Amino acid sequence: MQHILEAIQADASGDEIAALQIPESYRAAYVRREDVGMFEGRESWEKDPRESLIIGDVATPQLAPDEVYLAVMASSINFNTVWTSIFEPLPTFGFLDRLGRESSWGKRHDLDYHVVGSDASGVVLQVGSAVRNWRPGDRVTVHCNYVDDQDPAAHEDSMLASNQRIWGFESNFGGLADLSIVKANQLMPKPSHLSWEEAAVNALCAATSYRMLVGDNAARMKQGDTVLIWGASGGLGGYACQFVLNGGGIPVGVVSSSDKVELLNELGVEHVIDRREEGYQFWSDQHTQDETEWRRLGKKVRGMIGDDPDIVFEHPGRSTMGASVFVAKRGGKVVTCAATSGYMIEYDNRHLWMKLKQIISSHFANYSEAWEMNRLLDTGAIHPILSKTFTLDDTAEAANQVHHNLHEGKLGILCLAPGERQGITDPEKRERIGEDKITLFQRHAASLEN
Ligand code: NDP
Questions:
Q1: How far apart are CA 315 and CA 432, in angstroms?
Q2: Rounded to the nearest 5 degrees, what angle is found at the Cα of 424, between the Cα atoms of 231 and 269?
Q3: What confidence score (pLDDT) does residue 148 get?
Q4: Nearest-angstrom CA–CA distance, 69 and 260
């Protein structure tokens, strides 16, 4: 890949990029089918991505007509890479098997290794014969909605398509690699004021939060809405806070340390609850929830904003869902996209129906929602929440940090990019938008290390 990196760094023309030889193999982070049973008998927290994630060379797949070859400059760790690497709740090879049965192009994905990663920034190298809007040399970011348009439902909302998948999780050849194949309808223009790693960390989490709160398909937050945000300095939550502030709402962030409280205050979130300091015990044992603890949280929120939240931004799942349904305002909404702590959920249905609350499900975002999110990033209305950057060789260490909640915001991964802070093509715009805003999470993480 060295000749490709050199051409990108020399700002080669589109024609020159298009003429570059695509290598027969490339460096990637992957798990192996033969390792699926390696953690048997261990608890989730004991399963270690550093034992299962491998960095090594894999064969370059053939390019389908609707795809592009992408030189991946940077990527990021998402929680789905943690799931894949600990083989929970299911080994992702089942997804690859199913994709393999779908078409001859799908068959390419059904391999004994799974290249992971669902975010990327990079440069288009070659385009398939059916690609219209993108050219070799284009600098892009990638969203992870992997869908084709042959299902009628996709034309209403591509997230409703029966074969909708998450790239690099339910498909192979993901972004934690030096090269990838992605569908043309996953591409978005790279914001010119951001470095490769700053541009790479946003799409999955920010577009998911966008759909949950802003787009037409989920909670549809309006100006003045109060929003309780779990994990408010994490991947989803760090963008959720920005969307709420940006849309004239009032966020109440929940986090688990005083450092994170400080970080959110700097982001502009005035009301932050430190759940560790409060010591909430929503479950008194494995089978019983404690309503008095739900009430204690509700009282805390009311004490801060004078009312119950219009929207609760949910993703921890089993640990918090009972509390989330309880504390939402009469007529309010709980919007959920995940269940990190467990997916068999329990809540008191009386609090839902008697108070006319809604639970709304959401999952990633369609192309249009991802594009709208990218535009907000490009205009500087929202910012990356990159806190730390690792090399591709250290992917497993980064995934382990996310698995154990040792991070803030997003962890970036340098793939082909040889160092940080490269790829900024409009420094004036960066200055206008504000270095301090763009690097808030990076500076905070650095200050904790010093
Ligand atoms: P992060 O780990 O970056 O952030 C999650 C935050 O949630 C943590 O920082 C932690 O914050 C908080 N948290 C974790 N466990 C609990 C708990 N038991 N109770 C209360 N808070 C908790 O992850 P992401 O935000 O990137 O992803 C969160 C979940 O959403 C994952 O399960 C992921 O797979 C899923 N997801 C789903 C998507 C979809 O499209 N459906 C898209 C993106 C993510 P703190 O300790 O500070 O409170």
A1: 34
A2: 25
A3: 79
A4: 39
**Phi/psi at 123 (5° precision):** -125, 130
240 vs 7, 250, 320, CA distance in Å? 37, 11, 17
Which pLDDT belongs to residue 149? 82
**Ligand 1 binding residues, C-beta < 6 A:** 78-80, 204-205, 208, 230-231, 233-237, 254-256, 260, 275, 315-316, 319-320, 337-338, 340-341, 363-364, 402, 405
For strands 25-32 and 113-115, give the pairing: antiparallel
The closest alpha carbon to 399, from 167, 54, 90, belongs to 54
Can you give the pLDDT at residue 383? 98
Q: pLDDT, tens digit, for every residue of 234-245?
A: 999 999 999 999
List the structure tokens of 84.
């894949």
Overall size of the chain counted in residues? 450
**CA-362 nearest atom, ligand 1:** 41
* CA angle (134 as vertex; 129, 137 as ends), nearest 5: 110
Here the tokens at position 125 are 């190298």
Residue with tokens 């919007």: 335
3 state SS of 336 = strand
Q: What are phi and psi of 71, to 5 degrees?
A: -80, 115
CA–CA separation, 156 and 161 (whole Å): 9
Dihedral angle over CA of 58, 86, 315, 163, nearest 10: 50
Residues in the chain predicted with pLDDT less than 50, given as ranges, are none
What does the CA dihedral 138, 141, 142, 143 come to, rounded to 10 degrees?
-140
Largest CA distance in the chain: 67
| Residue identifier of the C-alpha nearest atom 22 of ligand 1 | 316
Cα angle at 105 between 396 and 84, to 5 degrees?
20
Query: What are the two backbone dihedrals, phi and then psi, of residue 77, each rounded to the nearest 5 degrees?
Result: -90, 125
- Cβ-contact 123, 71 below 8 angstroms: yes
> Separation of 129 CA from ligand 1 center, angstroms?
39
